[in-house]
From TrEMBL:
The species this protein was found in: Musa troglodytarum (fe'i banana)
PANTHER family recorded: OS08G0411100 PROTEIN (PTHR31589:SF237), PROTEIN, PUTATIVE (DUF239)-RELATED-RELATED (PTHR31589)
Domain Neprosin PEP catalytic: 1-180
Organism domain of life: Eukaryota
Name recorded for this polypeptide: Neprosin PEP catalytic domain-containing protein
Amino acid sequence: KNAKNYINTVQAGWHVSNGFFCFFVFCDSDGYQKTGCLNLLCHGFVQTSTRITPGQIYTLDVLSLSIYRDRFTSNWRLYNDRKPVGYWPKEIFNNMADCSQVQMVGIVYSPFDEPSPLMGNGALDGAKLANVLLLVGQGNNRKPENFVEYNDLRKNYYGAIYSVENGVLFYGGLGDWKKT
């Protein structure tokens, strides 16, 4: 198999859909080829609480999320404000038993013929992921130590800064990129 087919991912956060900020969950088990599953539209995420529902409009300024692998079931659990929301069953993944990488991302999208949108409020530090901790072993927390920025456009469109001592990723940008 192609190595890309072994890329597995779980994602949670907010995105803009039809002009509204919405809570979302996503999973994929074949490197973004065919198995991607957004919200509750397919077999991926199992919701266990009505506290916050994938796809719902989100109006608060802060979204506090935790994702971890349950050491007893090996399912990937999602929490909001330290309360369970649901989980991704271990059976839908082929390569997440011992994951080796965590990514914190900001993503924007626009059709090629339209300028790309702002990320955050448009400032480089306009959005942030704060209090980022990795759960290692039997419940030991630590801040991520290594940060590699990947930006598929020049820095004058989007950027990111990671503060190791504070465990905060700042990101944002003015956008306005358009394919010519």
